[in-house]
Records
---
Amino acid sequence: MTTEQPVTTEQPEQPGQPGKRPAKRPAKKRQQAGTKATVKDGYVLEDQIGFLLRKANQRHRSIFGNQVKNNIAPAQFSALAKLHQLGPLSQNHLGRLIALDSATIKGVVNRLVQADYVTSERSEDDARLRIIDLTTHGRIRIKGLLPLAEEITQLTLAPLNDQEAKTLHRLLSKIAGSLD
Amino acid sequence: MTTEQPVTTEQPEQPGQPGKRPAKRPAKKRQQAGTKATVKDGYVLEDQIGFLLRKANQRHRSIFGNQVKNNIAPAQFSALAKLHQLGPLSQNHLGRLIALDSATIKGVVNRLVQADYVTSERSEDDARLRIIDLTTHGRIRIKGLLPLAEEITQLTLAPLNDQEAKTLHRLLSKIAGSLD
DNA sequence: CGAAGTTCACTTGTGTACGAGTGAGTTGAT
DNA sequence: ATCAACTCACTCGTACACAAGTGAACTTCG
């Protein structure tokens, strides 16, 4: 790795330059004298897996937002989908199933309750539990949204062919696996 | 985290639902027993690329946190690394280079200033600009951290062999590409 | 020159994310 | 029966992440 340099990277653009900045410029002018932009390299941010994961996520979230618009965020979508699939679940359990910790699922459920997509009732069997269940409203909503999920996936994977998509899926599964 | 309990799968008690099994979550086993869960399938959250991306990101962030501990967050690290690589940059420009919008980079820079890792000065050439630059303190810090980045990447990619890691890198680059 | 358009930084508001800590409720082992 | 261990939900604090809007500063072009 690090054998290649992404020429695609942006130009550093001298900040103190009186030449001013035309937003987008053919790059590769300027600093040539000293060294390349990668003076103290060996470490190239753009090559880091973490950076790529974040960018990929960004793109997906952007696509999701474009498709879903109507005020449902990704985590909320996951929660509704899970409830639709499995039926009533305790709050923490639901959170675990969609990889949200108890602090985060709390906020997600709050917003879903507020939107009248789910109910949150104390369990009779175990006074600690809060059972989350879809409302009719929520059930209708998620049913309408599920088809969109397909499209979102398609769009996200658009730059890849089928084979590549499958591979990506497999590799991501591997590294997403067990968090510990 | 919260390493696997001896109980293995959590499998909580009945959510106060007589006659309704709590859908014994199949960790990764597609239950063929046909009880529920399979009914409205076709949509499996765990198979969605977005979910995988989020999980993968979670794992990376977790590893990052374990390695870096000392109060530097991923975005802050990226910012310092970029400044170290390219020298002083305007705030927005820096943000663009590490894929943070202007609202987000503001917060990141604020925290870096507060930690005395960077300075933020108005440009003389362009009164709109805020030039962000490393302090000596910040330069030392990032220099000490860069080697860790290597390790973080290694750990994140640990479940993959070299070939797979390369492939993942390539495929992620493709879908992370242009946000629009 | 001056209007139009752009970019900059900043703010507000919302939504994930997670560590750490709390207290009530439950269970298992003695 | 009881206590230790555990789980549940909750709160607090911090850190991204982005949409949308503001006003000042700069550029371009007519």
Note: Confidence is low (pLDDT under 50) at residues 1-38 of chain A.
---
Amino acid sequence: MSNSRNRRKHPEAVRREVLAETARLLLEKGPAGVTLDAVSQAAGVSKGGLLHHFPNKLALLDGLFDDLAHRFDQALAERMAADPVEKGRFTRAYIAVCFPAGGVAEGEEGWKALTVAMISEPHLRERLRSWVDGRAEVRAEAPLDALLVRYAVDGIWLSDLLGAPSMTPAQRAAMMERLIALSPS
Amino acid sequence: MSNSRNRRKHPEAVRREVLAETARLLLEKGPAGVTLDAVSQAAGVSKGGLLHHFPNKLALLDGLFDDLAHRFDQALAERMAADPVEKGRFTRAYIAVCFPAGGVAEGEEGWKALTVAMISEPHLRERLRSWVDGRAEVRAEAPLDALLVRYAVDGIWLSDLLGAPSMTPAQRAAMMERLIALSPS
DNA sequence: GACGACAAACCGTCCGGACGGTATGTTTCG
DNA sequence: CGAAACATACCGTCCGGACGGTTTGTCGTC
């Protein structure tokens, strides 16, 4: 903190702003809307400034992946730590993080962008694979219903992402309850 | 000389070839790989010839959407007609069509491409919405478990699409059974 | 069924603009 | 000062799309 104090422009803040705008553009305009010009302009930085933080476009997308994956891991770990019951802990955390009960919180929009990014750039799918490999809980020694629940959550996620006509709030609540009931315990 | 491919004479064949190659490129190279040059070359037609069938790139993607949505509808209807039990018919057909039990059949690769296209081009999401609106079965008056099953199928679909480490064949079979068991009956 | 007229299918080239990336100047902090 | 953190200007390439021309099929007429 000492080195960032009183600095006119905090590079870390610029970097975060850049990543946030990248995610937003990815969601709203699609992958084709993510150009270096558009990102830099949206983030309130010049193109050169953007390229100072990320040497090229691939590095930008990689940076987005890193950031979002890390925040996703953190959110999962947080939820799991708060769950006293060991069994099905991961599945419940997965539900809580991916299936927003009361509206969309901060950061979740970004995770949607992550999906868009992975589908857009085949290169990132490779990174997804190694990420999954790094998470023992995801590897499928889990009980069948745990898998089922996680896949259902992913499906809801995709549906929300595509903006398809969604469930009513009442349905969402009931679905959440059902998902938790199906989780191992 | 009689060309191995369609030299001329069958515009419909050219059109289908173009759409097939568009879908393939979309899956393999991602949205950025779908250029008019790449599509025309892959389909064995000149750029001018491609633009004769589809006046611009948007029309090409729209054409792909139309084609795949239509084939998806047909596959669903086929499956539903073959199901003697009325209750849960739609859900079971949805499972059968979207969750390939024995390998990937023809056309299913294309449906994956459809997902990629919709995620890439925000414009197509609008079309998805109206498509869903046109299908009474999808509108969510369905029982909770029917929704759950469909979302789970979508999740598996997404997972396959991203090439994430998937289930073992045995797990897939068990999952299929479980999904059908959860379907309304 | 031969023939000419017309339309559809298709080709090859060119252009304007956008996009990723570079090279270099300018400011700000330690 | 010196280095990090930007900004400005610019370059080469690629992409979407327009355009004119060429070949192939179709159809009416006799």
Note: Chain B is about 70% helix and 0% strand.
